[in-house]
Design goal:
homodimer, alpha/beta, ten-stranded mixed sheet, two-stranded antiparallel ribbon, 15 helices, globular
């Protein structure tokens, strides 16, 4: 069995005083301390990062991480837009499937707030197709097209989106590492400045600096006396990045395909999952996730989420985005997929403090790249 | 056993009429045709690419490749500067170690000649450390520092470098896919315009467009009636990217460490290797490779290569860079590591046409990132 044996993250937010690699180092250093592990015990590192080359002229991160620690182990950098962290986790998991008695670090980081917003917007748009970029479609625009399609098809309006932002800010308020620790109301979301109809600024996740790191292992000796979680599955699906080439845009097929594979491999069903971190880059994305991950029937998420049944302490069967999600905890692109898994790990081992969900056995993390061109679904349990 | 069951590449050169993804498609299409395989039979794709984000604002390549073929399989993009191709190969190999009866494609591509040379120089320098970039050290400068150290230490001069360029151009002259199919003389190399002392322009590999693709499999049924090569090992080592933090700069320790692991896993010794593709981004780099890979004793490569003992038809025990190397075949960064393995594959199955080495059993491919921050060594055999 492959296990998660530790998690660490930096504060997510505008961290102007810290560089990309300082964030990487902080998250790895704290992971090593908390797991009582020396860097010399680590066999490989998988690093998720999207924009290092674009905003910092900083590629070849593998050797730069090796330099920080004076090691000669393999260090892989993987990029898959906002799914870079989930992809790094998946590759690390595969390495452990192939190699017994190993210990690896999966780390993700992104440095986004040091450059002009236009530069970040352009960098993020690199995850879209060339035609979409040329049409001036940035990610709020792409998700707005999908949101408008969904809301019109199922007779919903902006209120059915706003509840997601409100819930995730209630959760993020409880998370000391979250970027926005501020409760917001539905009215505030509905009145927030329009970015791309129907998405207001409070429907959108922010730009964020931050890093997160997991220790993965299949070393039985090493896990003695450690709080561990089992990885039951980690599955990936892709889809056409261009919306115009998708079969549908009232949801994300890549999520659906990855989830079906992940449930099958874990021998679990959506109704077994008690806690999930889903990719709410925009409020609409959490509605899609609830349906595409099999939690809700198609077209019903708009209605069901209005009741806040996935909010902590509301005694729902499934609690979603206790970290605050991308919306409130922040979205340092390469770190997000790893933070999601880290949150599930902390919940499953009972270390989630004032946002702890009780009696947990199974959790799921869901990471999306771009407008749905890549999805990673990982199922964990104890 | 994990096998290579096919190889394809585009022409390497200035391919202004083709985009990055057109090159990817061309190499994959031809690979599928030559191996009589449908894309629907492929389980995953690993893509090596360095500069897509920098020169084209083209990230999230995984979903863009999925879109070309209308598939939903995992597509990973990995970046490790000039070792991106080798790293993609290594990850694909690990996937097959973990998953029986699979078929995957490992593809690498780079589009470098469509932008101004300054932009490519800056993009490539992103593989160096921040301090080196700020000091104005681009890669010819970094390798020149290493070359000067080596030449002075072992009492060699520029002639000991020039012979590498001459040999690799003699090989590239025979390779229909090579960028420069032109024989050159030692005198021409020695008189070529100085780029960074002691490296003249003919000591340097060019900037290049191109793509290359391998089919890897562990599916026993699939390989029936196919020409296959066994992968004995693929190992990676990293090192500090900054020259000032290295233990030595008269060679590349990452190569040495990766090679030792690769020989051990393959249960072979350097003297077993009959053919090698080594990373000659600059002439000095081939001297380093010959020593660090264990073929020659430290400090002797300068002398031994003067005799052209690794030239095709010179009846040496080891022939090096029959493709023409990076120097003559070209260096489309993400494609290089895969082309090297492809050349060894073609040689081992006897399909190397007029550059065929006879009676081969074992070959080695050696791919380096940056000034030696990453090295990938893979050993193949039949």
């Amino acid at each position: 069995m492959i296990n998660i044996a530790g998690y660490s993250q930096t504060k997510f937010g505008e961290l102007w005083e810290k560089s990309l690699f300082e964030l990487v180092k902080e998250s790895i250093d704290n992971l090593l301390i908390s797991t009582k592990t020396e860097i010399s015990e680590i066999d490989a590192i998988y690093f998720g990062n999207m924009l290092g080359g674009v905003t910092e002229n900083n590629l070849h991160a593998g050797s730069k991480i090796a330099e920080i620690y004076g090691v000669n182990i393999p260090v892989f950098r993987v990029e898959s837009a906002c799914a870079s962290g989930g992809m790094a986790f998946n590759l690390g998991h595969t390495y452990l499937e192939a190699n017994p008695n190993k210990k690896i670090i999966v780390v993700g980081a992104e440095k986004m707030t040091d450059v002009m917003p236009e530069e970040i917007t352009e960098g993020l748009s690199s995850a879209a197709s060339g035609a979409e970029q040329e049409a001036g479609l940035t990610f709020p625009g792409l998700y707005a097209l999908m949101a408008r399609t969904y809301l019109d098809k199922y007779n919903y309006d902006k209120k059915n989106l706003a509840c997601v932002a409100v819930k995730n800010h209630l959760h993020g308020f409880l998370n000391p590492y979250a970027q926005f620790r501020k409760k917001i109301t539905e009215e505030e979301v509905l009145k927030s400045p329009m970015i791309a109809d129907p998405l207001g600024v409070l429907d959108c996740s922010p730009i964020t600096d931050g890093a997160s790191a997991l220790l993965l292992t299949n070393d039985k000796k090493f896990i003695k006396n450690k709080k561990i979680v089992n990885i039951f599955s980690s599955e990936i699906a892709t889809d056409s990045i261009s919306l115009m080439n998708r079969k549908r845009i009232d949801g994300i097929d890549a999520t659906k395909i990855a989830a079906e594979k992940a449930y099958k491999k874990a021998k679990l069903k959506p109704e077994d999952i008690q806690i999930a971190e889903v990719h709410d880059c925009f409020t609409i994305a959490e509605l899609f996730a609830m349906e595409d991950l099999g939690f809700y029937k198609k077209g019903t998420a708009g209605k069901r989420l209005l009741d806040y049944e996935t909010l902590l302490d509301n005694k729902g069967k499934l609690i979603v985005n206790t970290s605050g999600g991308l919306k409130s905890a922040g979205h340092p692109v390469g770190a997000t997929g790893i933070k999601q898994i880290g949150e599930i790990y902390m919940q499953l081992i009972g270390n989630a403090e004032n946002r702890q969900v009780k009696n947990l056995k199974y959790g799921l993390a869901h990471n999306v790249g771009g407008s749905g061109g890549t999805a990673v679904v990982s199922i964990l349990g104890i």
